[in-house]
From TrEMBL:
Domain of life: Bacteria
Family recorded in the similarity comment: Belongs to the histone H1/H5 family. HCT subfamily.
Function according to Swiss-Prot or TrEMBL: Might have a role analogous to that of eukaryotic histone proteins.
MF GO annotations: DNA binding; structural constituent of chromatin
Name by which UniProt lists this protein: Histone H1-like protein Hc1
Signal peptide as annotated in the record: none
Coiled coil: none
């Protein structure tokens, strides 16, 4: 659950940068969004691994 909370934090934190990139054309904001998305990808993979381990250990 801790990592899922972190995912929600990251998404909330980049919301302003997403606005800046898509609505204002701010390229630097786009770079920050891309970095945050890469971080989210890593967090998502960690969550997937944890879920698989928990699922398999319950058998």
């Amino acid at each position: 659950m801790e990592k899922f909370a972190k995912v929600k934090e990251v998404v909330a934190a980049i919301e302003a940068d997403v606005e800046k990139f898509y609505n204002a054309g701010n390229s630097a904001a786009g770079t920050r969004v891309r970095k945050a998305m890469q971080d989210l990808k890593g967090l998502a993979q960690e969550i997937r691994t944890e879920v698989t381990e928990k699922k398999n250990s319950d058998k």
